Amino acid sequence: MTHGRKFHHDAIIVDGLQINNWSRAVLQELISGGVTAVNATVSVWEGIEESIRAIGEWNQFADRNSDIVTLARSSQDIRRAKTEGRVAVILGTQNTSLYGDDYRLVRVFAQLGVKIVQLTYNNQNSVGGSCYEPTDSGLTRFGVNVVHEMNRAGVLIDLSHVGDRTSIDAAEASASPVAITHSNPDWFVSSPRNKPDAVIEAVTSRGGVIGACLYPNVVGGAHAQLSDFCQMVYRLAEQVGIGHVGLGSDCTRNWGDEFVEWLRSGRWRPPSQETATWPAWPHWFTGPEDFPRLTEGLLAVGFTETEALGVLGENWLRLFDEVFPEGGSRDGGIVHDRTREPA
Amino acid sequence: MTHGRKFHHDAIIVDGLQINNWSRAVLQELISGGVTAVNATVSVWEGIEESIRAIGEWNQFADRNSDIVTLARSSQDIRRAKTEGRVAVILGTQNTSLYGDDYRLVRVFAQLGVKIVQLTYNNQNSVGGSCYEPTDSGLTRFGVNVVHEMNRAGVLIDLSHVGDRTSIDAAEASASPVAITHSNPDWFVSSPRNKPDAVIEAVTSRGGVIGACLYPNVVGGAHAQLSDFCQMVYRLAEQVGIGHVGLGSDCTRNWGDEFVEWLRSGRWRPPSQETATWPAWPHWFTGPEDFPRLTEGLLAVGFTETEALGVLGENWLRLFDEVFPEGGSRDGGIVHDRTREPA
């Protein structure tokens, strides 16, 4: 695998989502795994002030580790980071709670570098429905305004935990392509977090990308096989086109069990009687260090090198070029003004 | 009408909702109209911190006008205020935005005196759907926890601007009777803000009260007649039982047009191109001073004096006795513990 190792090392590897407890050691895991860029979750349940503070902490962390990491606000920032040998972190959130009730905060947070935002986490909110909620409101009136403002401010819309109806509504309402950063098709593993064909089609037919996900619950648990996962990615690429598939590991490095309890219960219900625990990961992918194995696995199931480069990162980069190119979006300016002012 | 005036003066008059820009002059309008108690809106779109600040302002305002007003936290506080000749103000909100994403804030705000809370204002939120939203999610998983915590903390659930499906879900989920503080039946005037029979039935059959509303948009505009309004109340009492009908004027005294724009657009959309304006009120009810006219009107359409006393205030007071009696609820303690801990 000498060729494979060099091939992986030269490739642009983009991870659609990681939700680590970030530290220098975790950054070194990404470097060890050859990861070029990652959408790093800044907040999930957190509101406006908490999210602002989390960005303050990220700025400080990036300053202290500026030899190996840089905060990226545009696709060009990612390409530069690759040449500099630094990991490019795109700040993202898994909820719109950071926007509170104010669509104008979309642009404010874009100015602070938050360029990928999931419309809902696990609960229905004022923007739309979640994949775990018994009923999905669809994209609300406020949600339509948030989507249009995300288009204008160059923020990528993420639908991974979003309900099916809201996902399709958002894909249709958005002037820019949208993403599923970390989910699998539900024909691979049946789970509320995986997506039916109609949602995948709504995203990818409009230029979006779906990031195949390694989180144990969406691959069938710790006994899932690398070859099965890679064959799923292959079949998905046949289904939606090779340019519309990426990876989104959903890595959760360096957390204790109290964090998975927080993710599940937030402040919307009391903590479980027995604290939730993290699931075990497949032995072939336990963290960002294992990205080279995915490259091997993708080549082994029949992807050409060019196709593999697409899945590993170029497809995400092409989408980022469309949604937050260098220029307007860098300072949170207006990128896509094809939409009307929200009304 | 000498008898009528004395009858009105002696009665306990409870207004289910007013959203005034409160001042001493406005309090004097209530006194002039013989109003004993009012659910006063503290916040609508405001979040946690803003709502806390609004309560701070209310405390200060009540201190400065303690000769004519008192903040009530229990039904007994209202009876005491009547004997003292002071207006009893129950702090309320027209949204659950004050709770943020945390059901535990139900009790915190109850400790601060917020005893009547509408689940949604005009937009879908994380608790449920609104009467103005194209789709209603129903009561969400977080919403169920909020309802149960409102039961435990002795907070009256208000469904006036809530969507029909969420309203019925909430009435069914609540261990305590619930209210529609300020809406009419939609057989009187067709409006998203008025209620179909199924919603009215869900509320009143479980011991709740509907407050017939004077806001121009829900009575058919400024040309509505007092006798038509009072006949509607009479027919409504026949429909749901005389013990389940009250009044909720929705008075909006002392505001400029910028406030109606805020109510309509909040921060969820840009202000209208032409600022919204307040509708004109019927000449026979332009503010709290006109409550005696309602008493006359109710007696004129055939209510007995006992029945009229129920509609004017005793029915609200009976509901408040059930939901926030003196004792546990006064300090935000647990009143109805028939519900499980939210799960």
Automatic annotation (TrEMBL), chains A, B:
<dbReference type="GO" id="GO:0006508">
    <property type="term" value="P:proteolysis"/>
</dbReference>
<dbReference type="InterPro" id="IPR008257">
    <property type="entry name" value="Pept_M19"/>
</dbReference>
<dbReference type="GO" id="GO:0070573">
    <property type="term" value="F:metallodipeptidase activity"/>
</dbReference>
<dbReference type="InterPro" id="IPR032466">
    <property type="entry name" value="Metal_Hydrolase"/>
</dbReference>
<protein>
    <submittedName>
        <fullName>Membrane dipeptidase (Peptidase family M19)</fullName>
    </submittedName>
</protein>
<dbReference type="Pfam" id="PF01244">
    <property type="entry name" value="Peptidase_M19"/>
</dbReference>
